[in-house]
Amino acid sequence: MKQNLFVYNTLTRKKEEFKPLNPPHVGMYVCGPTVYSDAHMGNSRTYISFDLIFRYLTHLGYKVRYVRNITDAGHLEGDADEGEDKISKKAKLAQLEPMEIVQKYTVGFHEVMELLNILPPSIEPTATGHVIEQIELVKEILKSGYAYEVDGSVYFDVEKYSSSHDYGILNGRNLEDLLNNTRNLGGQQDKKGKLDFALWIKAKSEHLMKWPSPWSVGFPGWHLECSAMSNKYLGGQFDIHGGGLDLVPTHHTNEIAQNMASCGKIPANYWLHTNMLTVNGQKMSKSLGNSFLPHELFSGNNSILNKAYSPMTVRFFMLQAHYRSTLDFGNEAMEASEKGFKRLMNAFDLIDDLKASSSTDVEIKPLLNRCYEAMNDDFNSPVLIAELFEASRIINSVYDGKLKIDEDNLQLLKQLMKSFVLDVLGLKDEQAAGDDLPQLLNFIVNLRNEAKSNQDYATSDKIRDGLQKIGFQLKDTKEGTNWTKI
RNA sequence: GGUCAGGUGGCCGAGCGGUUAGGCACAGGUCUGCAAAACCUGGGACAGCGGUUCAAAUCCGCUUCUGACCUCCA
């Protein structure tokens, strides 16, 4: 943990040295999915980005408590009073229990996370499991005077809060701007101010998901759950709060207001936000119709895709861009990543076959330092990957006998590759061969070598090309013939 | 309309005052029976126009284009 890690903090709009409140412990809260439909690739990018952050902090030796919620109630369609809960709406349409919807999409979400090799968080709390905590939080905010009740619903009073607090602290906008630029929505007659947002919503009789509370039988507002659950599992003040960039102006802004009103503290010291995945320069979103699902990408089953791409290709593609930059999806870029990823993993597979020499042509220490420098600079994975390609060049050269490496440097090189490729970037080899496959292949390769030594190239080429077609590549070297799975 | 981000070679994408990442594609070479892979070499870019500076893709100004947010959104 001797590294000086710098992170970009949305709250201060600059890079700051990361200093946890209680080292070696780190508390991190990331806003998770609303499970009313399948998460698309853009959503997945955020979870890959925070997986990288989680993995690097862990690699540095921090004991991270990573909380990522599941929103299974309270997320409204639109911000108006009569806005319907997204899950309730879907349940009615499908004629299912809301919890059936929740279960279906939660399971699907976990499957995708596993395919992308995204580690599960330490705690994955649900909104429905914390209604009591949310009701308590509403009581606190009412007690502090920053909320008011109208006909069974409770609203946060943004204008009153603004008189003593900086409501726009996270997105740097002042109240006047916000007021002048907020559109008038229908069905908000209960609210005193147009920026006010719901903490508790009285349910209409046909509403499916509702709970008793001191104000009405109803359900909690969307922003409330994150305040309640982060507080419960990480305390009133913790280290990192994250989510997609699009959560800054509303969700996170309101979350901070709720916490300030109830505890008097901004919940997290560092606010990290991941940028969007775009398609032809436009944000991927369901409403624009340019989104696609992870499974479509993995199967190639979408008109936008030229072919299928494996989960690790997708992960690698995303890690080749910095998490705070937009990343534009394209078939050409995906194919480039697919080839690059194979190149990296082929080199990775060779490290255990490398032989040490008594002298060395390469020094690994500076390379290792550069890997850490890259990650310490706000988790700069694209620069890290560039360094890993330099490591790959060294591995290939040593393997080909073009460079010499001594035992110390070889050990360092192995450690570097294993730590950064596997642990930090979370990449894994997707084409591991079965146990009996090597024997089988060696047998075929020997057969081909016999043909070759008889100058029966017709046969030897037939074997080589045949193996190539089913995914095995032969490589003739001075020491003999090797094969790799492609 | 308001606010905020960006425009980097054929594509994706780092860099953000001096030494021009990286991957893919392309060209030449080494190796090979021929290949593939690998390695070596190479070309090419910083939206436009001004300004600051010994020095600018990087700082400042203007123009232009694109996007995000302001409404649910990762």
Output the CATH topology of the largest domain.
Rossmann fold
Main β sheet profile: 4 strands, parallel
Please, how many helices?
16
DSSP strand (E) fraction? 5-15%
Q: Domain count, please report it.
A: 3
Mean pLDDT: 90
How much helicity do the residues have?
Answer: 40-55%
Structural description of this entry:
The structure is a single chain. By secondary structure, the chain is an alpha/beta fold. The chain has three domains: 6-274, 3-Layer(aba) Sandwich (Rossmann fold), CATH 3.40.50.620; 278-424, Isoleucyl-tRNA Synthetase, Domain 1; 437-485, no CATH class. 44% of the residues lie in helices and 15% in strands. It has helices spanning 41-59, 86-94, 98-115, 131-144, 158-164, 175-180, 222-234, 248-263, 294-299, 311-319, 331-350, 365-376, 381-399, 407-424, 437-453, 457-469; strands at 6-9, 14-17, 25-30, 63-68, 147-150, 153-156, 197-202, 218-220, 238-244, 268-274, 277-279, 282-283, 327-329, 472-477, 480-485. It has a four-stranded parallel sheet, with helices on both faces. Strands 5-6-7-8 form a four-stranded antiparallel sheet. Strand 3 (25-30), helix 1 and strand 4 form a beta-alpha-beta unit. Helix 2 packs across helix 3 (98-115), helix 4 crosses helix 7 (222-234) and helix 12 (365-376) runs antiparallel to helix 13 (381-399). The mean pLDDT is 90. It binds one RNA strand of 74 nucleotides through helix 1, helix 6, helix 8, strand 12 and strand 13.
Notable characteristics:
486 residues, alpha/beta, Rossmann fold, Isoleucyl-tRNA Synthetase, Domain 1, 3 domains, 4-stranded parallel β-sheet, 4-stranded antiparallel β-sheet, 44% helix, elongated, RNA-binding
